Amino acid sequence: MQSRLFNRRERGGKVFVSPDYNRSMEQQREMTWKRIEYLLERGVFKGWMAGEGEDVEMKMFACSEVLGIFDHSISIKLGVHFVLWGGAIQFAGTQQHHDKWLRDTENFKIKGWFSTTELGHGSNVRGIETVTTYDSKTGEFVNNTPCESTQNYWIVGAAKHATHTILLSQLVINGTNEGVHALIAQIRDGDGNVLRNIRIADCGHKNCLNGVDNGRIWFDNVRVPRENLLSSVADVSPDGEYLSSIKDPDQRFSAFLTPMTAGRVNVAVNAVYQSKVGLTIAISANQVNFKDFLMLQLCYDLWSQLLENAACEEDTPIKQDHSRLLLHGVTCKILQECREDCGGQGLKTENRVGHLKAEHDVQSTFEGNNYILMQQTSWSRGVFIFRSKIREAPDIFRLVLYNSP
């Protein structure tokens, strides 16, 4: 980060870097992309997709932490490209998909993003209304945005840089809706031109994260090859037969969606980064009271809990959501305390704490609305506890409970 792209400044014999939030939206977007190109040229992302082993994972983890602390915009751009787009191909795709897409993803020859959110919803993945049908005559899937409320919204990279996207849609085969599936759709050519039958609009200026080019996408009979369906869970034969070893639709949906919960883990991880930055600023500003040190310790304790939950195989998706909700609430309180402890200096942009508060605000709805996730997590944990208690109950008690209305 010695490059001027990272706003390098020398103070008291030390080198500091920080984002410049005083630029226009277009300038912030361009600077975010230049920073990604700078890191790419120096081999920072080598092995992130095509490599294997603990060393690769730890390097990716460490780099993500450093960049998350530096600027949330670059963290989100890289997170969507590698974790959501790349992760979906890794976990929901087959070896054929890995060979075709992962190396080009790592080298940014393909700029991949993830299309889940629609204008009419932000959390109801099962209720997505974008429709995909199959044309057995051409061996292609046909994708459509049936109405305005089903336009893909807030899609990272769509406004400017994305060339491809993972599209989640209702897969309809021979008149039967087989549920939500994911496929790869190209939206721009190599020169950045939007492809035919695709319409893209910019989401515009935001309260924060203006280094991220969020956009809106409409599909009008957009055709993609049959091979672009991510088919580790289910596939469609050339003649249009739906194939899956998992017959139950609910189990199939869970198996398909579980690997994609990594995005919610990233939300929790970024909450920890923002807390660490805010606390460091407040403590170094000499406007400190003892609770700041206690919150710093709490921050690290929660970080340890997050890692433990992410590594636990039992009930993992629910624990991931629980960690995200817990860390979001704690970080909101931490950043508010840091802002007050900085006094009037906390109002300045260069102080960063106020801007961190604005950036953290997106976490309340990003990757799912927190109110909905809270209800879902509470219900799921309640069912989990109830079932565990039932297993310990006498046989006659279990019989009464299981057969009660």
TrEMBL record:
Domain Acyl-coenzyme A oxidase N-terminal: 19-110
Pfam families noted in UniProt: ACOX_C_alpha1, Acyl-CoA_ox_N
Domain of life: Eukaryota
One cellular-component annotation, GO: peroxisome
InterPro entries the record matches: ACOX_C_alpha1, Acyl-CoA_ox_N, Acyl-CoA_Oxase/DH_mid-dom_sf, Acyl-CoA_oxidase, AcylCo_DH-like_C, AcylCoA_DH/oxidase_NM_dom_sf
Annotated GO biological process: fatty acid beta-oxidation using acyl-CoA oxidase; lipid homeostasis
GO molecular function: acyl-CoA oxidase activity; FAD binding; fatty acid binding
Domain Acyl-CoA oxidase C-alpha1: 331-378
The protein's name in its UniProt record: Acyl-coenzyme A oxidase 3, peroxisomal
Organism: Hibiscus syriacus (Rose of Sharon)
